[in-house]
Amino acid sequence: MIQTEHKNSDYPPISVAMATYNGGKYLAEQLDSILSQTLRPVEIIVCDDQSTDNTAEILEDYHSKGLLNYYINDQRLGFIGNFKKAVSLCNPGNYIALSDQDDIWLPSKLSLAAKCLENIDETDTPAIVYSDLILVDQDKNLINPSFRSELGQGGYIYCLETLLFGCFVNGCTMLMNPAMRSYFSTIPDHGALNHDTWISMIAYTFGKADIVPEPQVYYRSHGNNATEVGDFKRKGRLKRLLSEIIHSFKKNDLFEDQISFASEFYNTFQDKLSPEQKKLFVRFLNLKGKPWLQKKIALRMFFRGKWK
After folding, report:
1. Residue where a domain stops, chosen among 166, 194, 229
2. pLDDT averaged over 10-residue windows placed end to end, the chain, 308 residues
3. Residue numbers of the domain that contains 246
4. I want to staple 16 with a disulfide (CB 3.0 to 4.6 A). Which of 44, 108, 118, 305 is the partner?
């Protein structure tokens, strides 16, 4: 296996797991930012989901220089399946950082994350650390220095109660320990929510999580993002409320995706949850199909005491 130099032996070695699909436009810049880390990964594993652009050529160029290993899937796996494969190919004893194909990492991303993760890492406990992102456009012009603020997620405490209503962890900022890696294969390949939410839920229930204080990733907003910012961009409070009310008359689907996700998670891991966590999940799951106003009131109850 091709390995890059590990410049700092104070922390466990780090693998980078990247999923690509038609990402040639920005891929080289992202790979260069990974290779420019002050704490360089010992391996970069890339799984490509049958790209039809020049992604494979770029990967082959870096591979020929001994900088990464890449695999082209025999059939399309989809976004989640592709990440699951990439993680499965990483050294099981390493910390693992997830990487999108179109971001740019600050040079200190891995060193700060490794320091933060080492502080909470216990051998048998799944753990992650993550950070905010800096939102930029496709030409790297600043949109918002805080992606969390852009989504309206900057005003409350990050915990299980608030996570149930919407994920505040982006996988591209995440560093996980080997114990969390063993849970990656449990992520459902289907459903409305993604691997970020599943792993975050593990961390905030029977695992551990911590936040790297400063944003360490430039996140590009463009039409081909796996998570498109425009779908989540914060609206004014009154405008957002009116939009939700109008939508509720057409279809009351408020939080229904989150409830379905939480149900699958609860059914998978309920034996690992504390009695208090089980009660919390049951309260949340009981919102399924309830009127819009009842769900909004429940959100306020869950968030009580969680506002900054």
Report:
1. 229
2. 52 95 97 97 98 98 98 95 97 97 97 97 96 95 95 93 96 97 92 87 98 96 56 47 52 86 96 98 96 92 94
3. 235-303
4. 44
Give me the number of domains the chain comprises.
2
Is 37 in the same domain as 174?
A: yes
Residue 37 gets the label, from left (phi > 0), alpha (psi -120 to 50) or beta, of beta
